[in-house]
Design a protein that fits this description.
Elements: H1 3-6, H2 17-30, E1 39-40, H3 42-49, H4 53-65, E2 69-71, E3 77-79, E4 82-83, H5 84-107, H6 111-128, H7 132-149, H8 153-162, H9 164-172, H10 179-195, H11 198-209, H12 212-222, E5 227-228
Parallel strand pairs: 4-5
Antiparallel strand pairs: 1-3, 2-3
Helix pairs in contact: 2-4, 3-4, 5-7, 5-8, 5-9, 5-10, 5-11, 6-7, 6-10, 10-11
Keywords: DNA-binding, Transcription, Transcription regulation
InterPro entries: GntR_C, TF_FadR/GntR_C, Tscrpt_reg_HTH_GntR, WH-like_DNA-bd_sf, WH_DNA-bd_sf
GO molecular function, one term: DNA binding
Amino acid sequence: MLNEVVIDTWLDDTVAIAPQVRRIMRERIVKNDLPPGSKLSEAEIAKSYGISRQPVREAFIKLAEEGLLLIRPQRSTLVTKIDYPTVLQSRFVREAVEADIVRLLAQDPQPALVQELRSQLRNQAKIGKTSSADFINEDEIFHRTLAEAAGKDVAWQFVEGLKSQMDRVRFLSFELFPIATLIKQHTAIVDQIEAGNPDTASRAMREHLNEILKTLPQIIQRNQIYFDRCEDLATDGSPFNRE
């Protein structure tokens, strides 16, 4: 049963339950362990965890707000397809936020931050040789580190809430994932922060976050059943620029 894909992690009863259920389910959906159309039962998940239905219901509502679930009252709750326009718009917002984040960091380069980022780059190079999934996790750490260093952790939380559809795309595209290119782009960002070049750092981040647009049409063509609202793809498979 698909619920078993969700219920494979213990809950910590010393902290709030609903956020834990949401985190577990979100991870399974983003990693496509629960593909579009998967049915989830609030009652069955609650029973399997030995909890009331209320925290599961709260988790469902939060995931629906992210566009990951479709709640049909008195019926089943379904995992949604990846919404193509949302992927484009969330990427657009993320670019705007993160380009300004690295601009701020480059205005006042901190040696300790640069040292930490260099260490992360080494980890990325090592992990990228063996696991695309683990590299995605390292990539997440890299971008979160930048946001927190700039004092924009709240902005990063906002971005995290927007980019769930982008993350689903990334986990669909391991064989197309240009890890070497992404590490090179990360390195360029760190180089420009260290050199104190705000404009160049900002441009480097924008180039980096545009990378997904190069492979997105091919990803959609290979996984059409996962996507919704793809009418904006041109006849040659490239996306119209409607961000």
